[in-house]
Amino acid sequence: MIEFRGVTKRFPDGTVAVDDLDLVVESGRITVFVGPSGCGKTTSLRMINRMIEPTGGTISVEGKDIMSRDAAELRRGIGYVIQQAGLFPHRTILDNIATVPLLLGWNKKQARERAAELMDTVGLAAEMAKRYPAQLSGGQQQRVGVARALAADPPVLLMDEPFSAVDPIVRETLQDELLRLQGELGKTIVFVTHDIDEAIKLGDKVAVFRTGGKLAQYDEPGVLLSRPADDFVDSFVGRDRGYRGLGFLSSDGLPIGDLPVVAVGDRMPTDGWAVVVDGERRPLGWVARGTGTVSEDALVPGGSLYDAGAGSLRAALDAALSSPSGRGVAVDGDGRVLGSIGADDVLRGLADSREADGVPGADTVRGADVTDRVG
Amino acid sequence: MNWVIENLGFIASLLTDHIVFSLVPVVIGLVIAVPLGWLANRAGFGRAVVVNLAGLLYTIPSLALFVFLPAILGTGILDPVNVIVALSVYTVALLVRTVADALEAVPPLVVDAATAMGFKPFRRFVAAELPISVPVILAGVRVAAVSSISLVTVGSVIGFGGLGQMFTDGFQRSITAEVVAGIVLVVVLALVVDGILLLIGRLLTPWDRAARAVAQGATA
Ligand SMILES: Nc1ncnc2c1ncn2[C@@H]1O[C@H](COP(=O)(O)OP(=O)(O)OP(=O)(O)O)[C@@H](O)[C@H]1O
Ligand SMILES: [Mg+2]
């Protein structure tokens, strides 16, 4: 647990970068600091490992005031990942990753073994071990940065816009892998970004900062979308928040409707649409009413699939909206067709979950103006 | 040519002197310039002072230095230490700025990341800033070594000029072969030392060449 209590940072030139911050970062979760440029995210993050010293208030990590600890030692127990990685250009990838273990006094062999293990963990091919950072792509360097931060197995990981310098596709892969890694490692992660979508995707909890270093709202992403505390958060969260908020609502209990299913070679449906499946009942595409038999050429590409076991209301709605027939294809965990889902079912499900106050973490919402926003 | 063959032993001893007189100061100068350059780079305002003071040293005519040093150091006027000290001063003068510039060019992001990983300043300097500065510092050392090899010859006015003795001696005794051989040897020595330093640099910084190759590939 990392606790900020009344933390303020006023720089010598008078800039107040962080103003009276009270916040508890929960252990084993990803907490995201998000907000517009200059709102004090980086300053807040860097105060945790004393790269910046607060001018007021206290910060404690696992109950211990960070100011009571030697700065260098504190830092060795806190992984740190930054944009563009900041790797040592003169050391090989393996030795870059082994840096902190070596600092902690491990012998070279142990440190390198550990580094090799981490290369595998973050998805770097073993043959990159002997290369230098300049010989890697930006995305690969970022992986090295993550591996380096994890090398000594610190309980806390600080990440300052680690993925913002890579292209959108690589960024998405890196985000997915961070989530996968976190599923295995359960670190206490503080992640800074100015990208609200990234915040919502990664954060177990999201702290929205406003300019001037003030905390505007600190909540689970679903709550942020459904109940922004004020106009600032509302506009920062951006357009489509209602739709995106569906991503945080479980689709448990949505009725799965019938769905005509045919195989290639069967008679064409005489009425409406049917889903064409393979021998494993996995969907191949749609066919519309016609004559003769179903052939591969007649297939109309389907929309997104809705995993009935794990999907959110958003996945269900998107499946319905993106399907050529107007009804989405619901599948099981193995991708086999279960039935269909309609947009109206999703909306009814949403109404039900509102009634049951199924908005995750709704009890933590603060601010009196919440009701007039949700209703 | 005959003169050279008849005096091989003499030439060899001058060459040895020359190497010692020119390269020992480079090593001493480098050892002094690194901490000074580090200091200059750290001290914002002090940087200009240190760098410019060092630069000023370089403007002292070498002859004057050779002549006045004994008075300052309390050494005999015919002590080879004078040559070593004088050339060390020049090396420091050359390298302080180079070291300060090289350290300044280390990416701040890398230094910052090192600090955040828990390096204390001295260890960080040895593990990161200094090795990353090697390519630039080494370029400065090559210049310092070559100019030191050439400056040693001036020491012949006080009798410790290494191969420079061959100029004065050959000139006084009108032995053209001796003068020519002296010049050729000084040039060859400079080229060989420069080549060796280049090689050492390559061995020390394989990463630098890797990075250059990538940069060239990117622009090609
Ligand atoms: N060393 C400093 N001296 C003075 N002001 C500073 C210093 N560092 C940051 N600031 C100011 O403090 C404020 C917060 O900066 P910070 O870097 O924490 O913002 P940020 O939220 O990380 O922004 P960005 O998204 O652009 O990275 C800004 O107004 C910035 O100009
Ligand atoms: Mg920042």
3D architecture notes:
- The complex is a heterodimer of chains A (375) and B (220).
- Chain A has 375 residues and is of the alpha/beta class.
- Helix content of chain A is 32%, strand content 23%.
- Residues 360-375 of chain A have low confidence and may be disordered.
- Chain A contains 14 helices and 16 strands.
- The radius of gyration of chain A is 25 Å and the shape is globular.
- Chain B has one domain (2-213): MetI-like (MetI-like fold, Orthogonal Bundle).
- The longest helix of chain B has 35 residues, at 8-42.
- The radius of gyration of chain B is 21 Å and the shape is globular.
- In chain B, 37% of the residues are buried.
- At the A-B interface, helix 2 and helix 4 of A face helix 6, helix 7 and helix 10 of B.
- The site of adenosine-5'-triphosphate (ATP) has 13 residues of chain A, from helix 1.
In the CATH hierarchy, the architecture of the largest domain in chain A is 3-Layer(aba) Sandwich
CATH topology of chain B: MetI-like fold
Distance between the termini of chain A: 35 Å
Mean pLDDT of chain B equals 88
Number of helices of chain B: 10
Please identify which CATH superfamily of chain B we are dealing with.
MetI-like
Low-confidence blocks of residues of chain B: none
So what's the oligomer here? Answer: heterodimer
